[in-house]
């Protein structure tokens, strides 16, 4: 069963990557490097972990997923379409006038989007609030939030981290897309994050590190939640910016660059092999 699951996740992730690339090329805008680094995490969550139903996107019992790195909306929208929250054909409208698929996710317009994100540092504070709400309701739904690593330079994350540790929110899981690159430079040369795991432990979080492109490893981590009863969960997912396309991987220039027609063709060919 595990082998079938990982094969399914790999196939879905390839489709999500191809869709993200095509959307961004067509729109002439986007953040493809971070889209590709987060894709395997998104695929694992939506097709093997989250309790969500696209037929009832506002079900009270659903797990909550918050895409804090909202500038990587291409990967999120492609994942939501793959999961059936809206038709795949709607991806063609990405960033077009009057489209539901804005450059940053909008919960008012788009099924499956939990909260508006884009200004970095907002997702984790909102996720802490939803996790507290679940505890107050004595409900079983969980909250997951995906941040970029450069995003952790925003101080609001650390206020939220302190609050989550204080309230022992073991129904909250933070996944950090640790690709080590942000706009224009590495995270460590911009504002040093390491020792990152120790920082989260100091805020009373349980921490695990994982290869963010290894489906087996991701499934094992998510199956083990909560990592430690009474502590919020921090998963540092080590990833590669531009993952899946050889000439984009680990290249800071692909943070905000749009592929040309020739580059798109080469990328899609790689992702079809």
Helix content: 40-55%
C-alpha geometry? globular
Largest sheet: 5 strands, parallel
Query: What is the name of the CATH topology?
Result: Rossmann fold
What class, by secondary structure content? alpha/beta
Low-pLDDT segments: none
Tally of distinct domains: 1
Number of strands: 7
The strand line-up of the biggest sheet is 1-2-3-7-6
Gyration radius over CA: 17 Å
CATH superfamily placement: Thiamin diphosphate (ThDP)-binding fold, Pyr/PP domains
Q: Could you tell me how far the N terminus lies from the C terminus, measured between alpha carbons in angstroms?
A: 24 Å
CATH class: Alpha Beta
- The fraction of residues assigned to DSSP E strands is 5-15%
Please state the average pLDDT score.
97
Tally of contiguous helical segments: 9
Question: What pattern of helices and strands is seen along the backbone?
Answer: HHEHHEHEEEHHEHEH
Looking at the overall shape, the CATH architecture is 3-Layer(aba) Sandwich
Summarize the structure.
This protein is of the alpha/beta class and 273 residues long. It is built from 9 helices and 7 strands.
Describe what this molecule looks like in 3D:
The chain has 273 residues and is of the alpha/beta class. It has a single domain, classed as Thiamin diphosphate (ThDP)-binding fold, Pyr/PP domains (Rossmann fold, 3-Layer(aba) Sandwich), CATH 3.40.50.970. Helix content is 41%, strand content 12%. It has a five-stranded parallel beta sheet with strand order 1-2-3-7-6, sandwiched between helices. The chain has a two-stranded antiparallel sheet with strand order 4-5. Helix 4 runs parallel beside helix 5. The longest helix is centred in the N-terminal third of the chain and has 26 residues, at 2-27. The model has no long low-confidence stretch (mean pLDDT 97).
